[in-house]
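WP5 quarterly update. Target: Oxysterol-binding protein. Source organism: Anabas testudineus. Length: 805 aa.
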Amino acid sequence: MEELEPEEQLLRHARNGDLPGIQKLLESTIKDEMQININCKGKSKSNLGWTPLHLACYFGHKDVVEELLKVGADVNLPNNIGDTPLHKAAFTGRKEVVMLLLHYDACATVINGTAQIPKDVTQNAEIRSMLEAAERTEERKMEEKLLESAREGDLSTLIQLLGRTKPPDINCTDLLGNTPLHCAAYRGQKQCALKLLRSGASPNIKNKNDQTVFDLASDAAMKQVLEGNVMTRHVKKHEGQLWKSSRFFGWRSYWVVLQDGVLSWYSKQSDAAANVRRQGCKSLTHSNCLVTKDNCFFTLKCFDDSVHHFKVSPKNDPETMRKAWLDALEEHTAYSTHYCSQEQGSEEEDVEVISLGGLTDSLQVCLFLEHQSKSVHHVSVTLMCVCYFRTSLPAPMFSRNDFSIWSILRNCIGMELSKITMPVIFNEPLSFLQRLTEYMEHTYLIHQANASSDSIERMKCVAAFAVSAVASQWERTGKPFNPLLGETYELVRDDLGFRLISEQVSHHPPVSAFHAEGLKQDFVFHGSIYPKLKFWGKSVEAEPKGIITLELPKHNEAYTWTNPTCCVHNIIVGQLWIEQYGNVEVINHRTGEKCCLNFKPCGLFGKELHKVEGYILDKSKKKLCALYGKWTECLYVVDPAAFEAHKKNDKKGTEEKKGSKAGCSEDQQEAPSAASDTVDVIPGSQLLWRIAPRPANSAQMYSFTSFAMQLNELRKEMEGAIPQTDCRLRPDIRAMENGDIDLASEEKKRLEEKQRAARKNRSKSDEEWKTRWFQQGQNPHTNTQDWLCTGGYWDRKYSQLPDIY
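Structure tokens (predicted):
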């Protein structure tokens, strides 16, 4: 029999409880100066992903467990499905092993791949009690660590603790009843106090001596911090060399400057001194810093959900350098957040200021106006540096007024439009693959869902994302170009935290598949769409057949839904206008919760135009909350009882006005009145999503959003990286974008003929078309056929790609 590798022997001995065998193996490796990984993972079917400690714990070999722990086995290392050794010992009811693991500081709160902690997997009441006690001990340790970091001014530890998946109670107390904010107050730790306040610490809690944080404030400056009046007219400038990570270029060295609440980075210190050739910048309003155990790295998450990774040089006291940067970032963030929110003060505050009277009042008003002016300047700076992407197309659109679509469509009533060749003038300069990518414009809603610990809050965000995905279609009456078979599109957005790949996987019927993922592996969003288009005489209807799937691995959740039907009216005569209608059901497959949304058709008088209404239901179909709004504008959530009462009153008002309204022809030749483009907000509502205003030049740019204008942009760094099948390289779309309609028409015709010839040649040779990045398979959540990403695209090995352009 072939002798096993040392690590395979170790796994076998651990499984069988062979303590002498393990000791002999470890001794022999020391003598022979061999290296053996005590935390190695099994590769065979019986132990795949399990370490020796997992196996010994599962089979209850206490002496082997103790030996492995003594020689340094990682007590909290998870296997391939997220189980730690403590999960395995608890699952099999090994009480003594559980006690031993806890003695070696095993964590009782690790969440596995099925969202369970060790106490959730055991059937033994005694073990469950032990694990609950261990949980409480761990929680208390974290609380003591939080209290200590607040006392000692250890900002990096404070940030790390508050950034945990399950952070300690921010209002926990010590033996004297002091909260972390009390501790920071009496020790004069201003940066820690600021961080605690921004994270939700209450300044009104009293300790055992009946004292609030204001009573313990070390000086007047600390009192100002606690009262929210810490800001002065300036904060100290901070600058130095940092390494910054980029998706395309990896880690690069920059000279980074923190000034007046704005973070800027330059290639050289001399550029910063002259304020030229700035490589990028970000406003720090409502930003957050996250740190790792490593002394060098830290991450900045900005108000727009963009994420920026930095590291200090490991050569010169990295811990002190990182602390200096974190302190400065915290101070500038507080400064920027304070002044950018000045203009949002309540009416009550305004009345209070006016009532002060006299010279003090005048000076405060002057100071406020100065701060407001400074705030506008900060916003302008932010916008300047966010404009890394283009803000307009190379040429405005042509007028369609001189072209009659009726001359083409009059013989096509009831037909499927994907089989009709349309003149290029009725297109917009995007492929349907790029149009699909517009789902990702509001990715921040996915990040919000992922950050929430409550499944209902996550459902609210996912429902808002589902509604926001169709918002860009408002006033978009141009038809995207039909993708060619094998056409692809990729988009990497570091600022939004995702990357996406899509491919045209079928031509008849036309099916487009896409797969997006978070850059931190925090979500997966995928689906395949078959846009079934039909002409009904006066309107064109687009029914997007296909399931959309969103997966949140952190919560072991998957959500699925289908998009509503889109209809373009007044194809023959009158002003073109768009509506979305139909039912959308968003399902959480883990919890059974659903969000049932109704995209309402316009109706006779246009009263229901663009409206969306629905409910979030638990698995027993009980209404938990109501959602309402307009897919062109915003979405709110409110208590179901308040929503139904509002609907009832609204219905009464409508019936009273009915008699006074004149009749309206169903064959409207104009779009419904824009006066209805407002949402009546019900008291107690919470805003989930609001659309960003379109740029001023949108009407001349095919009614594109800012996001849409950036989709076909071809940057120099992309030219050598993207495959030859990418939409950005498609000549007819590029010609139309550049305003050359004749060339676009010629190229479109040439590409269609080339595609037909290729299909004809394949049919002669019995050769079947093979997709490159997707393959058909079963969607594990719906058990229906879907197009799933095969992976490998981002390895950038693009051999044997079809010549489609």
